[in-house]
Amino acid sequence: MTLDVDLFWSFRSPYSYLATPRLVALEAEYDVNIHVRPVYPIAVRIPGFFKQVNPMWPPYLLKDTVRIAEMEGLPYAWPSPDPVVMDIKSGEVPAAQPYIHRLTRAGVAAAEAGKGLSFLNEVSGIIFGGTKNWHEGAHLKDAAARAGLDMDALDAAIEKDPDHYEKVIEENEAAQKQAGHWGVPLMVFEGEPFFGQDRISHLVWRMGQRGLQKRG
Fold first, then answer.
1. What is the DSSP secondary structure assignment for residue 191, as one 8-state letter?
2. Which domains does the chain have, with CATH numbers?
3. DSSP letters of 34-96?
4. 216 vs 214: CA distance, rounded Å
5. pLDDT tens per residue across span 149-207
6. Phi, psi (rounded to 5 degrees) for 102
7. What pLDDT is attached to residue 95?
8. Backbone angles phi, psi at 174, to 5 degrees
9. Is the pTM of this model over 0.90?
10. Is the peptide bond before 41 cis (omega within 30 degrees of 0)?
């Protein structure tokens, strides 16, 4: 029996990046379908969020994500450029965002093409894996190709009907909230939310109670 998991995920979340290789391995090993549901980052979804956050949090986040990447054996560096343009000191996030809308819509398009998880894995790998100017040249195109997709075709589909992709993102954000959490990565199995890269083992444990089987 194939089990289904919804994955709410953001292209600006280092924790989403750090969780993805394990989710790829999970889907490869077990009879599980992970349904990718991209959402916009909190910095975009919640106006003024970073103006109110505890100032101790960002430094801790950097230390924690470096530690997890080292433990998991993953390359890691804060993105250059940041997928969300913002003033770090003030927490101000301008309305004009040159990267995050394209990325998130492309994630939706990849999911609709049946390659969502591979696309997230490859693209987050260049964004958080130390590739400077990941938005330039052939970086995104090559990452999409490794996932079995054509970045130009994804962009063309989005340009043809951007409202469709925005609607799906809105539906994803509503479903995420309905599941009982606002953060990413968020895995939802049979209505139960599992928040964070450190909850994958708990997810596997719960699915094991529901008959989780290895492939083959």
1. T
2. 3-209 (3.40.30.10)
3. EEEEE---HHHHSTTHHHHS-TTHHHHHHHHHHHHHHHHT------SS-SS---TTT----S-
4. 6
5. 999 999 999 999 999 999 999 999 999 999 999 999 999 999 999 999 999 999 999 99
6. -60, -45
7. 86
8. -65, -40
9. yes
10. no
